[in-house]
Amino acid sequence: MTQEAATTARLMTAAKEALETYHDVHVDDDGALTFRHSEVPCAVQAMQLAEGLTVLSLTCVVAWDLPASEELAQSVAERAGQGLFGTLGVVRTERGMDVTLRYAFPAEGMAPAPLGTLMMLVVATASQLRAELLESEDTAS
């Protein structure tokens, strides 16, 4: 096993341990961790960006197949500027719009408790945003 593989494996083990305090965590065939926070599916991966810099990448699918509208895209853009943990993205598909929240951070050496707290801040933000988006869609229809 290479040093990079060993480092990312240790980091994924720490992330799994931290997340299992809060959620049922599944290890996918590719090694990614997946879980759901409320109705928000999330995935965690580890990667080495440079020697000595290994990061965890947490992706949450906030909402999907929302009706495509400039108002929604603008609302997400405004929310992105409010200092969230992570980067909000809007993807236009043939079925409408999908909204994701992504957060990558160096996590080597973090103990499970602070690592879990940091990831829960991100996924709680994703869940809150999902509730707000779905509520605004309900009031718009």
**Helical region count?**
3
Strand order of the largest sheet: 1-2-3-4-6-5
Rg of Cα set: 16 Å
State the end-to-end CA separation. Answer: 54 Å
Strand content: 35-45%
**Structural class designation:** alpha+beta
Order of helices and strands: HEEEEHEEH
Uncertain segments: none
Write the topology of this structure.
Layout: H1 3-19, E1 26-27, E2 33-37, E3 40-50, E4 53-66, H2 70-80, E5 87-93, E6 96-106, H3 112-140
Antiparallel strand pairs: 1-2, 2-3, 3-4, 4-6, 5-6
Could you characterize what this model shows?
There is one protein chain. 40% of the residues lie in helices and 35% in strands. The chain is an alpha+beta fold and 141 residues long. A six-stranded antiparallel beta sheet has the order 1-2-3-4-6-5. The longest helix has 29 residues, at 112-140. It comes from Saccharopolyspora oryzae. This is Sensory transduction regulator.
Briefly summarize what is shown.
With 141 residues, the chain is an alpha+beta fold.
Features:
alpha+beta, single chain, six-stranded antiparallel β-sheet, elongated, 141 residues
